[in-house]
């Protein structure tokens, strides 16, 4: 195992104190694949996540050399903890350098869910460890070779979301036709990697030759199946997984814990003068569970009454490219102007692209909209709920900034409810309407008619 040498201790007090300081050797026996005690998942079930490497699944293959690793700084007093009342950093306040407790850690020592997400995206198997473990591979990313290694008997069934099953007209053939419940489809010899992908991908619904018969079968581990499908969503993948039975005795490569709660850590802060808002700071927060990096823009100085806060969900197409299909770009810029006009407040830029289904899935939804589906039905057809966003990270960031009650800028009551359930008081909901254009008028009407958005 190769390790980057620690830097000398005399760097203390220099502009980046602590970086590389006091790196300690890895404790004897410390291994990536060590088991840690389980923690209670938010849903109430106890899971570990285990990534299975090709090397472990296929012992004849030579193991790659251990990669280089460096120490990663960790704040002694996590920034994620709320500061004292009245101690909200104001503009102009120097932030940092902060005391850091440097542990020697692998760069891959990210949150457990983050590692499982990376594994699924890379086409590797992830085991959801519980009393009845479940090992899955993404239908979207697993190669035929990987599937053959993880499932040499070729018997792995296909796990899809209940909503996708309904779109495939399988719902009425299940015991419980609850769209939130995953569905397991029996393996048959025609169900190969390509056919499974075309089953999962609604853009191929109209073009693929009929495939089947599809035989839904009993699902004995619904909690694990739901957790696995949620992981696929967090990875921005289609909700379809191969359920493989790998050798659990020797298959461990990397152990992680799921459901560690919604902790966030402030990782960087800087001034970011914006047009007409020179007194703005940008703060990056990293979530401990899925590793997602969210951003807070602190505009002006706020204090006293509950600040005006906007939770903006990432929309690459609208925010960056100025897409006319939605109202995100104008909403983002107008929210900042409103916050500045109110004397200060916070905009959270949350990495919830596509209402929580990820960019590729949102673009799949757009392709369905090109074929006549509205924004809600497109999500359902893909196998997702209309809105998959959660607000625990947003609430944790607000608390880290010393905010526990807000005036929330939104037309979406579900957003206010979600934030309130995550522990933030809503003193007032402030409407946030943008004029419609010919390309988004139907979209905005659908959100009012079907998603509960207020006029
Ligand atoms: N899945 C999907 N996501 C979309 C679509 N159009 C925009 N989005 C995403 O929706 C999110 C913005 O949410 P909106 O529903 O416009 O607004 P809201 O946040 O619910 O409500 P407001 O607070 O009133 O703006 C962003 O993450 C966009 O990427 C779409 O057609 N399908
Ligand atoms: Zn948008």
TrEMBL record:
<keyword id="KW-0862">Zinc</keyword>
<keyword id="KW-0547">Nucleotide-binding</keyword>
<feature type="binding site">
    <location>
        <position position="326"/>
    </location>
    <ligand>
        <name>Zn(2+)</name>
    </ligand>
</feature>
<feature type="compositionally biased region" description="Basic and acidic residues">
    <location>
        <begin position="11"/>
        <end position="24"/>
    </location>
</feature>
<feature type="active site" description="Nucleophile">
    <location>
        <position position="389"/>
    </location>
</feature>
<feature type="binding site">
    <location>
        <position position="315"/>
    </location>
    <ligand>
        <name>Zn(2+)</name>
    </ligand>
</feature>
<feature type="binding site">
    <location>
        <position position="331"/>
    </location>
    <ligand>
        <name>GTP</name>
    </ligand>
</feature>
<dbReference type="GO" id="GO:0008270">
    <property type="term" value="F:zinc ion binding"/>
</dbReference>
<feature type="binding site">
    <location>
        <position position="328"/>
    </location>
    <ligand>
        <name>Zn(2+)</name>
    </ligand>
</feature>
<keyword id="KW-0378">Hydrolase</keyword>
<feature type="binding site">
    <location>
        <position position="415"/>
    </location>
    <ligand>
        <name>GTP</name>
    </ligand>
</feature>
<keyword id="KW-0479">Metal-binding</keyword>
<keyword id="KW-0342">GTP-binding</keyword>
<feature type="region of interest" description="Disordered">
    <location>
        <begin position="198"/>
        <end position="218"/>
    </location>
</feature>
<comment type="pathway">
    <text>Cofactor biosynthesis; riboflavin biosynthesis; 5-amino-6-(D-ribitylamino)uracil from GTP: step 1/4.</text>
</comment>
<dbReference type="InterPro" id="IPR036144">
    <property type="entry name" value="RibA-like_sf"/>
</dbReference>
<feature type="binding site">
    <location>
        <position position="375"/>
    </location>
    <ligand>
        <name>GTP</name>
    </ligand>
</feature>
<comment type="similarity">
    <text>Belongs to the GTP cyclohydrolase II family.</text>
</comment>
<comment type="function">
    <text>Catalyzes the conversion of GTP to 2,5-diamino-6-ribosylamino-4(3H)-pyrimidinone 5'-phosphate (DARP), formate and pyrophosphate.</text>
</comment>
<feature type="region of interest" description="Disordered">
    <location>
        <begin position="1"/>
        <end position="35"/>
    </location>
</feature>
<dbReference type="Pfam" id="PF00925">
    <property type="entry name" value="GTP_cyclohydro2"/>
</dbReference>
<feature type="domain" description="GTP cyclohydrolase II">
    <location>
        <begin position="267"/>
        <end position="430"/>
    </location>
</feature>
<dbReference type="GO" id="GO:0005829">
    <property type="term" value="C:cytosol"/>
</dbReference>
<dbReference type="GO" id="GO:0003935">
    <property type="term" value="F:GTP cyclohydrolase II activity"/>
</dbReference>
<keyword id="KW-0686">Riboflavin biosynthesis</keyword>
<feature type="binding site">
    <location>
        <position position="410"/>
    </location>
    <ligand>
        <name>GTP</name>
    </ligand>
</feature>
<feature type="active site" description="Proton acceptor">
    <location>
        <position position="387"/>
    </location>
</feature>
<comment type="similarity">
    <text>In the N-terminal section; belongs to the DHBP synthase family.</text>
</comment>
<feature type="binding site">
    <location>
        <begin position="310"/>
        <end position="314"/>
    </location>
    <ligand>
        <name>GTP</name>
    </ligand>
</feature>
<dbReference type="InterPro" id="IPR032677">
    <property type="entry name" value="GTP_cyclohydro_II"/>
</dbReference>
<dbReference type="GO" id="GO:0009231">
    <property type="term" value="P:riboflavin biosynthetic process"/>
</dbReference>
<protein>
    <recommendedName>
        <fullName>GTP cyclohydrolase-2</fullName>
        <ecNumber>3.5.4.25</ecNumber>
    </recommendedName>
</protein>
<dbReference type="InterPro" id="IPR000926">
    <property type="entry name" value="RibA"/>
</dbReference>
<feature type="binding site">
    <location>
        <begin position="353"/>
        <end position="355"/>
    </location>
    <ligand>
        <name>GTP</name>
    </ligand>
</feature>
<dbReference type="GO" id="GO:0005525">
    <property type="term" value="F:GTP binding"/>
</dbReference>
């Amino acid at each position: 195992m190769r390790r980057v040498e620690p830097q000398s201790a005399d760097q203390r007090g220099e502009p980046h104190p602590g970086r590389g300081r006091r790196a300690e050797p890895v404790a004897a026996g410390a291994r990536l694949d060590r088991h840690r005690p389980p923690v209670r998942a938010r849903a109430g079930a106890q899971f570990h996540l285990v990534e299975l490497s090709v090397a472990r699944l296929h012992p004849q293959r030579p193991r790659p050399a251990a990669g280089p690793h460096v120490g990663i700084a960790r704040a002694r007093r996590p920034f994620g903890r709320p500061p004292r009342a009245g101690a909200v950093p104001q503009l102009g306040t120097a932030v940092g350098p902060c005391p850091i407790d440097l542990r020697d850690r692998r760069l891959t020592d990210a949150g457990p869910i983050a590692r499982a997400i990376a594994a699924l995206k890379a086409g590797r198997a992830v085991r959801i460890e519980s009393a009845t473990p479940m090992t899955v591979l993404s239908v979207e990313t697993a190669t035929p070779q990987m599937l053959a290694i993880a499932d040499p008997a070729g018997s792995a069934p296909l796990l899809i979301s209940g909503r996708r099953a309904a779109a495939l007209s399988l719902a009425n053939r299940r015991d419980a036709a609850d769209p939130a419940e995953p569905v397991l489809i029996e393996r048959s010899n025609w169900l190969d990697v390509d056919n499974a992908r075309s089953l999962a991908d609604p853009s191929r619904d109209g073009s693929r030759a009929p495939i089947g018969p599809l035989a839904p079968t009993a699902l004995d581990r619904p909690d694990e199946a739901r957790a696995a499908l949620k992981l696929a969503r967090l990875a921005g993948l289609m909700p379809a997984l191969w359920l493989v039975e790998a050798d659990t005795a020797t298959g461990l490569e990397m152990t992680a814990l799921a459901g560690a709660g919604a902790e966030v850590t402030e990782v960087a802060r800087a001034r970011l003068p914006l047009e007409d808002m020179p007194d703005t700071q940008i703060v990056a927060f990293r979530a401990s569970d899925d590793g997602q990096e969210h951003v807070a823009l602190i505009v002006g100085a706020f204090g006293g009454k509950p600040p005006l806060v906007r939770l903006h969900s990432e929309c690459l197409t609208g925010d960056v490219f100025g897409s006319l299909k939605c109202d995100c770009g104008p909403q983002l810029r107008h929210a900042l102007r409103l916050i500045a006009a109110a004397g200060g407040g916070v905009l959270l830029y949350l990495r919830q692209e596509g209402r929580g289904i990820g960019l590729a899935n949102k673009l799949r939804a757009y392709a369905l909209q090109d074929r006549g589906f509205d924004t809600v039905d497109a999500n359902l057809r893909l196998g997702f709920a209309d809105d998959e966003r959660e607000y625990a990270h947003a609430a944790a960031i607000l608390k880290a900034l010393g905010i526990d009650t807000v005036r929330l800028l939104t037309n979406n009551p579900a957003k206010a409810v979600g934030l309130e359930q995550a522990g933030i008081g809503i003193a007032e909901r402030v409407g946030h309407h943008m004029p419609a254009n010919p390309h988004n008028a139907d979209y905005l009407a659908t959100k009012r008619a079907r998603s509960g958005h207020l006029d």
